[in-house]
Amino acid sequence: MAGQKLRLSASADEAHLQKLAALINERVEALGKGPRIATQATLLALVALDLADEMLAARRRADDARAERDRARRAAEVAVREAQEAARGVLVEALTEVDRALVDDELLLAGP
């Protein structure tokens, strides 16, 4: 990594570690293309800071997405309750009309 061979012992498999090292190497190369004023340690520190910044930004986006999902869920729950209440109102009105019609029919059948 960054021109150095490292012997690591980790729970991650070797292929995963190689992908991580490749990512770091790409970042080090990109930073190192300018004038040679930074040491390898400085380049690695800058890469670490950049990766940490990206990680925090990703966490913020994930937190924002979760918060938006929760707001949307609460809004949907309110909309469902309102729709249920409206449906109940319509059913009550319809049943009231049916009752009136039945009473009217009974009065007609009973005659004067």
Give keywords.
single chain, 2 helices, 112 residues, mainly alpha, 80% helix
Please characterize this protein's 3D structure.
This protein has 112 residues and is mostly helical. The protein has one domain. 80% of the residues lie in helices and 0% in strands. The chain has helices spanning 14-32, 40-110. The protein is rod-shaped and about 110 Å long. The mean pLDDT is 88.
Give the helix proportion (percent range).
over 70%
Number of domains: 1
Unreliable segments (pLDDT under 50, ≥5 consecutive)? none
Largest sheet report: none
Strand content bin: under 5%
Distance between the termini: 103 Å
Helix count?
2
Q: What shape does the CA trace take?
A: rod-shaped
The count of DSSP E runs of length 2 or more, i.e. the number of strands, is: 0
* Structural class assignment: mainly alpha
Mean pLDDT: 88
Helix/strand order: HH
**Computed CA radius of gyration, to the nearest angstrom:** 34 Å
Topology:
Elements: H1 14-32, H2 40-110
Helix pairs in contact: 1-2
Give a short summary of the structure.
The protein is an all-alpha fold.
